């Protein structure tokens, strides 16, 4: 029926902040409505949304400040997923709704759920012809009768689609608790692993639309074409943004990357896929074997599924790359960056950035340490704000 709809969001939000993203706020407002609030889903994170956020934070044992960081986002996805599963398992029955129904509370609730499914439903509290058509679309894509009425079968389908979206988003995301667990199981400092994440991808492996974060490297594409006996000189004309001999940052803007990759694939698909870096750790496609995969396609498909898979690929890479694992264990940032990012690492100050993020990390710096919960809660919002500011810069 559709591609990905619910956004993968963990961005920082606070009351009346000019940098709040409307789509971020609308998704949060819809989640809070699903959990029992009755907010206007308007993208304005004002006092009512702040109060609702504080209520949610208090109920879930989070820091109660009305600010929405990664911990609040993750908990909202987790709690919403648990709730919709309960609705499905208990076969909860709700009133049938149809054109001109006047149960405003229930209509706001289902409109909020539909917004999470399609990112377009307007939360009005009115069952009008627009809402009727959205219900018909749900019914047409399922075995429900396309009556436009929200009957028992259609309620079940709405809950099922909501569950699918919540599962996709929640299980895509990597938590600090999982980093702590897997870093220690791999004899690495959790703070050191998180430092690499911060520098390589600003903390997330996906864009909000669910697409994998990538960076296409034109100078690598030049080399990869040579490896498959394709003369890059014959393809430079009209392709100067994707094919060049020497490294340049001229085409690094995030919004350009998939267009550049697709353009390169028209010249040689496999060489193009090997010439991009992927996910939270920005592992290059040509390193697919080192990362534990049989093909670059398998590598990309795995990373697209979740940030947990991206973490495992990273562990494979550092273990299978000479000197890389030991350098990360020893927090020898210059040596690690030279191996991981290449000899030009100083150009982007990769080593200095990793060292700084490591020093500022709230995660344990040594194996066997527990997270300082008080420090973690009180400093996490500041750390998110810093990362978000760096991303925008």
UniProtKB/TrEMBL annotation:
Where does the Peptidoglycan binding-like domain start and stop, copy by copy? 23-73
Q: Which Pfam families match?
A: Muramidase, PG_binding_1
Note the InterPro entries from the entry: Muramidase, Peptidoglycan-bd-like, PGBD-like_sf, PGBDSf
- Where the record annotates domain N-acetylmuramidase, the positions are 190-359
Identify this protein by name.
Phage-encoded peptidoglycan binding protein
Organism of origin is uncultured Sulfurovum sp
